Amino acid sequence: MTRGMTDQNHDVLVIGSGAAGLTAALELAQTKKVLVLAKGKLTSGSTAWAQGGIAAVLDAGDTFENHIRDTMVAGAGLNDLDTVEFVIERAPKAIDRLCELGVPFNRDDGDLHLTREGGHSHRRIVHVDDATGWAVQAALLKAAEENPNITLLPHQSCIDLITGRNQEEFSGSGRVWGAYALDEESGEVVTHVARATVLAAGGAGRVYLFSTAPRGATGDGIAMAWRAGARVSNMEMMQFHPTCLYNLEVKNFLITEAVRGEGGRLFNPVTGERYMEQYDKERMELAPRDIVARANDDQIKRYGLDYVHLDISHQPPEFVKEHFPTIHEKLMGLGIDMTRQPIPVVPAQHYTCGGVKIGLDAKTDLPGLWAAGECTESGLHGANRLASNSLLECFVFGEAAAKDILSCWDQLDEPPEIRPWDASRVTDSDEEVVIKQNWTEIRRFMWNYVGIVRTTKRLERAGNRIEMMRQEVEDYYGSFRVTTDLIELRNLLDCAGLIVKSALRRHESRGLHFILDYPETDSVARDTVLVP
Ligand code: FAD
Ligand code: SIN
What we know:
About 35% of the residues lie in helices and about 15% in strands. It has about 525 residues and is an alpha/beta fold. It has three domains: about 10-235 and about 355-410, FAD/NAD(P)-binding domain (3-Layer(bba) Sandwich), CATH 3.50.50; about 240-350, Succinate dehydrogenase/fumarate reductase flavoprotein, catalytic domain (Flavocytochrome C3, Chain A, domain 1); about 435-525, Fumarate reductase/succinate dehydrogenase flavoprotein-like, C-terminal domain (Methane Monooxygenase Hydroxylase, Chain G, domain 1, Up-down Bundle), CATH 1.20.58. The protein has a five-stranded parallel β-sheet with strand order 9-3-2-13-20. Helix 2 (about 65-75) crosses helix 3. The mean pLDDT is about 95. Bound molecules: flavin-adenine dinucleotide and succinic acid (SIN). Flavin-adenine dinucleotide (FAD) binds near residues 39, 212 and 391. Succinic acid (SIN) binds near residues 257, 258, 351, 387 and 388.
């Protein structure tokens, strides 16, 4: 029998090295030994790609009530008020902590500079130029690397959570004891056993053909928790960002919402019309994201366009270069001078609002499993995430998960004997083409049938295709040695199934879920909760 390695040297396993995972790890490491796993490099998640910034009430003229109201308005009332208050009231402290860790936020005369984004009634986004995520990721990683209680292990692609079913003495319970992970370098499967596990594996953006998210955003955390028996909610609430660069070579470069926050305007490149007036006369380009994304989509489809124009060239060139140095440099490399020309943009998938259901203590349904960040549905975002609220959610729930684990540590049992991974019945694949074909197919039909504007008929078509592919992928999974591509394909398919099932259950249009068969919004907002 081919049995992989077992690693049992840590108290807590954290799956994911982005903002949520590292925040949890740093807090836990005060007294526990923590192992942090990442798929690919430690910087491979969305955190490093974040541009705009982090929302927090820091201006004397702003209030928590304003931020709470803006979050609930963007979320179309599906948000959980307790969660919204919990997160927003903790934002200033989260920013203080990041300052202590050395994040070099932009300042004006010593005070933090606050930019503005869609849906925010005030300036309240702290940022590091237009590359906030990179600075945050670097500061968290540096602190984790310097901490003797934290071990960072990249290139570990988790396959499944370990539960009672995997104990040597089968218990059948959903208690989580860590995860099986493919070591991407050796090809071996390692059994990472832990007394507590924190899932912080990011979103599922890559289930769509066009997405601003990194290659590894394949919903692994959501799919693993679902297969282990945890509920997931609001998976139909997929956020599309209105302004992803349209370029045939560079497929997923975001043009931050802060460009509109600092005066950028949207135009139809054929008619020259500043069309947002038709869709949201009052807020124009600073309407919440779902409204602007649908407006861009509508213009593109109605006029048969490849893209619309985002123009900030009316602002002084020095202002543009100072606020958006990364974007300016990137565009110059592609022959677009944003200080003089409009930028061609299209909507693209951007953020997964739904996910593994958690409470204010970051607990999931499964004993031994906590979760934080984009893989969760905490109640903060509701039917549409307000810009720059997601990094904030990672900091608040990463800390909440750690605090809860520490507070109940003595009640957590020592892990039992766990069966190592059994690879005795599988062989090397001789048909990699199956994986490639299915990867492309899912992402294409999800874009075409389960995109910005939906119909029941198209959702059903997508559902039928998912069922057909499921058998093929499960057969393949049961026969061949796992690779990261295969792990991701299986997860993409599970997430696609969860999105379609949730979308079919919601018989109304609300926030990000816009369905032509049910254009009205119900008077009562209800979560779509799927039970395994
Ligand atoms: P991530 O940062 O995505 O990290 C996921 C981690 O899980 C990674 O380490 C990954 O390797 C690991 N992982 C995944 N699968 C596995 C597996 N199977 N096994 C082991 N490890 C695994 N939000 C804001 O608030 N402000 C912004 O300005 C902003 N800008 C954005 C710009 C872009 C282009 C994008 C894509 C997103 C942006 N967001 C922004 C959203 C925000 O970046 C994310 O929601 C947030 O960073 C998610 O953090 P996380 O810790 O949950 O996950
Ligand atoms: C952006 O910079 O436009 C992204 C902000 C976010 O996703 O919160």
